[in-house]
Specification:
Length: 504
């Protein structure tokens, strides 16, 4: 009788079990359908699918915690941060922003929680945790890593191309050059050559460690990975820090209203410190505050990052990340910069376009884009700096009567009518591109600053193509110098064109 009722009305299984006892067929191999005991057909919950009382609403299942592996040692600098060593396993509690909340359990079972820098971690048991995986990296950054003295021929890395459409790339040191091989991904298979094909990138790497690539030797050791910079503190709302936490070291440069020093925070983290001089008037101090507000709101790989401010007493400080190689103009003129080939130079230009595309997307203008205001770091990473004239704009055009104008870099509508926009920044980018491909030459050579405006507007003059400049790059320059702002490309378009540049 009980078995008959169970088959006829399976949703009353709990009732039949109480009356007749458990079914002899129940066991670890019994099959329960999705309709088992979830209700009485009228929306009234009776029990869950495992026969447990459902007097309270079902709790959603907690998703499995994300486990990450530490790639480097990290020493906490205050009570909010969590120390760890390379190889430690961390359970990520929250992964928002540059600092993640994590839990670490030590060998004695004790748990500790705190903030950890996201760029010191890689997801456990994934390609990201492999010593040869470097994440998103441009060709010129890969070159910088592979050419370091610690790496021998055959050193290699796998990267995700900075050009979105490229996917995985295998970069290998070969003599004094780097060779780059696209890893194709089709129908679930990964391969460099059409044959053989593999189920994962890991299998591709393992195969070429015992079989030579078509034009290269075997893959030897993974490229030496450089430890990333420690990020600004996790409490992003607490930008104000006491001056006593900062130590000044070397003076990097100076101007009429501010000097810039290298220094350290808590004798640990390298930073750059911009100090507003006491002779600055109220207008300069207002610009200083505007610069701080701009930097607080923006975070991008190719924009200089704000670390902190010290404004409780004069002189005021702006603390930013320290970029080792200095400004792009000086870099292009020194032996290291002059050794870069055209493809590497264009890659640097693409990085600047990427940072400007971010500002463009956020309705912001820079107004002083030039090689002198771009900084170059390790791996030839370029970061736009000096936001003293930058503005967030609500209208398409920003009107200013500021007479302190870098004439050779400024769009004619900005010089003549004080009309600044994203498209006036595009004009300046064209001049910056000229600086890059000429290794820092002064634009409009032989022309005085005061004559540039008439040259460009009255005579419709445009600089000729620099020596050895590829025609496609000169065409991009000319597109930036269209007389009508609306005819100039966006930074999004410029970024795409430069990222897809292929040298001869």
């Amino acid at each position: 009788m009980g078995e008959c009722l169970r088959k006829t009305c399976p949703c009353l299984k709990t009732l039949w079990d109480r009356i007749y006892g458990p079914s002899p067929t129940d066991g670890e191999n019994s099959v329960k359908t999705d309709s088992d005991c979830t209700g009485d057909g009228l929306g009234n919950m009776k029990s869950d699918r495992y026969g447990h009382p459902a007097s309270a609403p079902l709790r959603p299942r907690k998703p499995a915690a994300a486990l990450y592996t530490a790639l480097w040692n990290f020493e906490a600098r205050d009570g909010q941060e969590l120390s760890f060593k390379a190889g430690d396993m961390l359970e990520i509690v929250s992964s928002s922003g540059d600092w993640w909340s994590a839990k670490k359990i030590d060998s004695q079972g004790r748990a500790a929680t705190g903030f950890v820098p996201f760029n010191y971690l890689a997801r456990a048991e994934s390609v990201e945790s492999q010593p040869w995986f470097f994440g998103k990296l441009s060709r010129v950054e890969a070159l910088s890593h592979l050419m370091s003295a610690e790496n021998d021929n055959g050193s290699f890395l796998v990267r995700i191309s900075a050009t979105d459409s490229m996917g995985f790339v295998l970069s290998v040191k070969s003599q004094a050059k780097a060779k780059h091989f696209k890893i194709y991904h089709t129908s679930g298979q990964f391969y460099v050559d059409p044959s053989p094909q593999f189920a994962s990138v890991l299998e591709v790497v393992e195969y070429y460690q015992t079989h030579p690539l078509s034009t290269s030797d075997l893959l030897r050791k993974p490229c030496i990975r450089k430890m990333p910079r420690v990020l600004p503190p996790p409490s992003v709302d607490e930008w104000e820090l006491p001056k006593e936490q900062f130590t000044l070291e070397k003076m990097l440069g100076g101007g009429h209203f501010a000097d810039v020093y290298s220094g350290r925070w808590k004798n640990h983290t390298k930073v750059a410190i911009k100090i507003l001089k006491n002779n600055a008037d109220a207008l300069v101090q207002k610009d200083f505050q505007l610069e701080v507000q701009i930097m607080k709101h923006f975070r991008h790989r190719h924009l200089i990052s704000l670390f902190a401010v010290c404004t409780s007493s004069a002189p005021f400080y702006i603390i930013t990340e320290l970029i080792e190689k200095g400004d792009l103009l000086k870099f292009l003129k020194n032996p290291e910069g002059r050794a870069l080939d055209m493809e590497s130079l264009i890659d640097m230009a693409a990085q600047v376009a990427d940072g400007m595309a971010y500002l463009e997307k956020h309705n912001s203008i820079h107004r002083d884009l030039a090689a002198r205001n771009v900084l170059v770091g390790e791996g030839y990473v370029c970061k736009i700096a000096d936001f003293g004239l930058a503005r967030v704009i609500k209208e398409p055009v920003y009107i200013s009567d500021d007479k302190k104008i870098p004439y050779k870099w400024t769009a004619p509508e900005a010089i003549g009518h004080g009309r600044y926009s994203g498209k006036s920044d595009v004009w300046s980018f064209g001049i910056l591109l000229y600086e890059i491909v000429t290794y820092g030459a002064v634009p409009y050579p032989g022309v005085r600053n005061c004559d540039v405006y008439n040259f460009v507007t009255r005579d419709n003059y445009r600089m000729p193509s620099p020596p050895h400049c590829p025609q496609v790059i000169y065409n991009i320059m000319r597109s930036c110098w269209k007389a009508e702002p609306e005819d100039r490309p966006t930074f999004k378009i410029l970024r795409h064109e430069l990222e897809n540049y292929q040298g001869n």
